[in-house]
Design brief:
Order of helices and strands: HEEHHHH
Oligomer: single chain
Radius of gyration: 18 Å
Strand order of the largest sheet: 1-2
Shape: globular
Structural class: mainly alpha
Largest sheet: 2 strands, parallel
Strand content: 5-15%
Helix content: 40-55%
Number of helices: 5
Number of domains: 1
Number of strands: 2
């Protein structure tokens, strides 16, 4: 999700189990009263800062075609968990998901648009390209 955002695309997280989703915030943020139960202080801004240059370098490599997106994302496998790039992408992903959830909950038009897209699914284009 973080790499897609850096490339200018918006990937939306799954809405399944929405009631169990948490808002991930940096440890230094003050959490408004009443939101403590749905928030987790699990985002490290310093981890994002430490890996930011590498994230940008990776996004630029994908955009320029030097590295395929598939090959680049393979780098984020389980073996990469200690890597600063992986850590930065994970913490940025948590922030982006939180922003999406806040928009989804607070903006009715946005929520309606998401539901319309989900309901439409693949029905808007024929699978084979041939009409019956």
């Amino acid at each position: 999700m973080a790499i897609a955002r850096l490339l200018g695309s918006d990937l939306r997280p799954r809405l399944r189990d929405l009631a169990e989703r948490k808002l991930h915030l940096p440890r230094v943020f003050r959490i408004p009263e009443g939101l403590e139960a749905v928030t987790v202080r699990s985002v490290s801004l310093s981890a994002i800062e430490r890996g930011w240059d590498e994230l940008l370098r990776l996004a630029a490599s994908i955009r320029s075609g030097r590295v395929s997106a598939t090959l680049a994302l393979q780098r984020f496998g389980s073996a990469a968990q200690g890597d600063p790039l992986h850590r930065a992408a994970e913490h940025l992903r948590r922030l982006l998901r939180t922003v999406f959830l806040c928009d989804y909950i607070a903006i009715e038009d946005f929520r309606r648009e998401i539901h319309t897209l989900l309901n439409r699914g693949g029905a808007s284009t024929p699978a084979s390209g041939v009409q019956a």
